[in-house]
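quick one
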Amino acid sequence: MHKLGIMGGTFDPIHYGHLVAAEMARAEFNLNKVLFIPTGIPPHKDRRDISAGELRLEMVESAIQDNPAFTSSAMEIEREGPSYTVETLRLLRKNWPDYELYFITGTDALREIFSWREAEEILTMIQFIGAARPGFDASDFLLKVQKEHPEILGRIHSLEVPALAISSTDIRMRVKRGEPIRYLLPEGVRQLIQQRGLYAE
Ligand code: ATP
Ligand code: MG
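structure w/ adenosine-5'-triphosphate:
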């Protein structure tokens, strides 16, 4: 059985926190590929000023081009209406029939999975890799799973990664304030942000 890692996110913009989590998950869990899927209209985000899907995908493609195990998909940004993970996973299961699916999230996103649409369905379909994210402790969440949903505990895996307190929100604010973002994300992504005038006032 092959293994497919799935890295979903707004990626507005993609940064080294995402890339390190994906790469460490790939190595630790022997994933054959990691698929980066920028979200369409994220159901959980109330930001109205999310960059166009094509721009976020372009930044993702630039960021992952030098890693042969990384690939991207436009499936969510091309879909009409809000993107629900459960629908994405159903499609992925159809398109990657020989692969076991591993959904990679930071601990902030992991703590929210019970609020996802059709959470129970999702939790039985795939494996989860929760990459430690500075400031977001998952131990309460794991205790809750142990108490209330012990049947899925075996499918939730914790992953320690070199802690990077980088967020897209912080990067956007830095650009807005004219502060440096170099070394927080790949240089090609930084240049795209500059060329396209993203996140500036
Ligand atoms: P925003 O500030 O706009 O929410 P973000 O930096 O949180 O952006 P997302 O696109 O929301 O990035 O996150 C996509 C996925 O990557 C989520 O599962 C998130 O938990 C994870 N992630 C983001 N940043 C890090 C990081 N620094 N370390 C580990 N995981 C991360
Ligand atoms: Mg986020």
